[in-house]
Amino acid sequence: MKLRPYPYNTRPPQQGIALVTVLVLLLLSLTAVLGALRYSNLNEAMLGNTSDYNRTFAAAEALVRDAEIDIRGRLPPYTLQTDGSRGTPCRPTSATDF
Fold first, then answer.
1. C-alpha radius of gyration, the chain, whole number
2. Nearest to 42 by CA among 31, 53, 52, 50
3. What pTM does this model have?
4. Which stretches in the chain have pLDDT values below 50?
5. Is 57 left (phi over 0), alpha (psi -120 to 50) or beta?
6. In terms of Cα–Cα distance, which of 88, 91, 72 is closest to 80?
7. Closest to 39 (Cα-Cα) out of 49, 31, 29, 51
8. What is the structure's pLDDT at 96?
9. Between vectors from CA 59 to CA 53 and to CA 65, what angle results, nearest 5°?
């Protein structure tokens, strides 16, 4: 027959290690969540900057193409007037076009 160190109706004294373990795990998970939040905010800012850069670059390219057309004196296809005639680049065809 084995002897038990404690009687059946009492429990062994608790050491409190569960509380320390839970607090450490909570601290680790909080650190992981805060790191992921910071990383996602950084990625969102970088994506916004890249999007703004691409939009600005496309607008600058369109402006350069339009300026080249104006300098060479060509008539681009989008200068068709409402009366069917073609206009001169950057110049109105009549006084009412101002």
1. 37
2. 50
3. 0.44
4. 98
5. alpha
6. 88
7. 31
8. 59
9. 135
Taking alpha carbons only, the member of 61, 62, 70 closest to residue 88 is: 70
DSSP assignment letter at 8:
T
The amino acid sitting at 49 is: N
Q: How many CB atoms sit inside 10 A of residue 20's CB?
A: 10
The residue type at 39: Y
Torsion of CA 12, 15, 16, 18, to 10 degrees: -80
Identify the sign of the CA torsion 24, 29, 33, 35.
Answer: positive
- C-alpha span between 45 and 53 (Å, rounded): 12
Sign of CA dihedral 50, 54, 55, 57: positive
